[in-house]
Amino acid sequence: MAQRTTIVVQSGDMDKLYSALIIANGSLAMGMEASLFFTFWGLERLKKGGLEKGPLSKMHLLGLGKWMVKQRMKQAKVVDLEKLLTDFKELGGKIIACEMTMEIMGIKREDLRQDLIDEYGAVGTYIQHARDSAITLFI
Amino acid sequence: MAEIKVDVRGQTCPVPLVEVRKAIRKAAPGDIIEVIGTHPASKKEIPMAVEALKLELLSVEGSDTDWVIRIRR
C-alpha cells in the first residue's frame, strides 16, 4: 500500500487552503495517497461558490491585502484553487467532510459540492486515515 | 511504445509535478514521457518523484530555467 498524507483543513483562509492543496497535490504527484479532512472554517470553502471566498490569514485589510496577493500570484502564474482541487481529485485524492461541523453550522449536504466529497465522517474516520499516514498536518 | 510530451513551460509549483504524475498515470509501461519546463525547483523534484515512483529517469538536460527531463514508465 502506498504511503499516505492526511491533512485537517480547519482554516478557511485562502492562503492556508493553498498550502493544504499544494502539499496534498505534491503528495499525490510523488506517489503517495492523500486525504483532506474539511472541518470548521475549512468546510465553508466546500460550499457551492465558497472556494475562493476565504480571507487572507494576515494583512487581509478588508480585502485589499487579498486582492494584492492575488495579483502577485497571477504574475507568478500560480494556478487557482479550483484547478488545484480538480487535479487533487483527478490524481485520486480523497475529501472527507466533517459531519459535526455541518450540524453546528447548519450546513446541509445540498449546500456543499457533493461531487467532490468522498465521505462524510467524524473523528474516527480521521483517525483511520491518519493512523497509517506518513505525513499528517493540521492547517 | 508511445512518446508523450508534457509542456509545463511558465508553470510554477505544484503544476509541473502534478502534470508529470497525470502523464505517468495515462502512459503504458515502456512509454517515454518527455517534460519541458522552466521552473527551477521542479528540475530537482521531478527526478525525486520518478525515484519515489520507481520509474526510470533517462535524462535531465538544460539549465535550471530551461530544461528537458525524459522518463520511462
What does this structure look like?
- The complex is a heterodimer of chains A (139) and B (73).
- Chain A has helices spanning 14-29, 40-44, 64-75, 81-90, 99-104, 123-130, and strands spanning 4-9, 33-38, 94-98, 119-121, 135-138.
- Chain A is of the alpha/beta class and 139 residues long.
- In chain A, α1 (14-29) links the parallel β1 and β2 (33-38).
- Chain A is globular.
- Chain B has one domain (3-72): TusA-like domain (Translation Initiation Factor IF3).
- Helix content of chain B is 34%, strand content 37%.
- Chain B contains 2 helices and 4 strands.
- Chain B has a 4-stranded mixed beta sheet, with helices on one face.
- In chain B, β3 and β4 (66-72) form a beta hairpin.
- The longest helix of chain B has 13 residues, at 40-52.
- The model of chain B has no long low-confidence stretch (mean pLDDT 96).
- The chains are: A alpha/beta (139), B alpha+beta (73).
- Chains A and B meet through α1 and α4 of A and α1 and α2 of B.
Strands of chain B, total number: 4
Strand order of the largest sheet of chain B: 1-2-4-3
Q: Tell me the CATH architecture of chain B.
A: 2-Layer Sandwich
Please state the average pLDDT score of chain B: 96
CATH topology of chain A: Hypothetical Protein Ychn, Chain: A
Outline the low-pLDDT stretches of chain A.
none
Termini separation of chain A: 25 Å
Strand order in space, largest sheet of chain A: 4-3-2-1-5
Q: Please compute the radius of gyration of chain B using only Cα atoms.
A: 11 Å
Please count the helical segments of chain B.
2
| Assembly annotation | heterodimer
Helix fraction of chain A?
40-55%
What is the domain total for the residues of chain A? 1
Give me the secondary-structure topology.
The complex is a heterodimer of chains A (139) and B (73).
Chain A (H helix, E strand, L loop, with lengths): L3 E6 L4 H16 L3 E6 L1 H5 L19 H12 L5 H10 L3 E5 H6 L14 E3 L1 H8 L4 E4 L1
Parallel strand pairs in A: 1-2, 1-5, 2-3, 3-4
Helix pairs in contact in A: 1-4
Chain B lengths: L2 E6 L6 H12 L5 E6 L2 H13 L3 E8 L2 E7 L1
Parallel strand pairs in B: 1-2
Antiparallel strand pairs in B: 2-4, 3-4
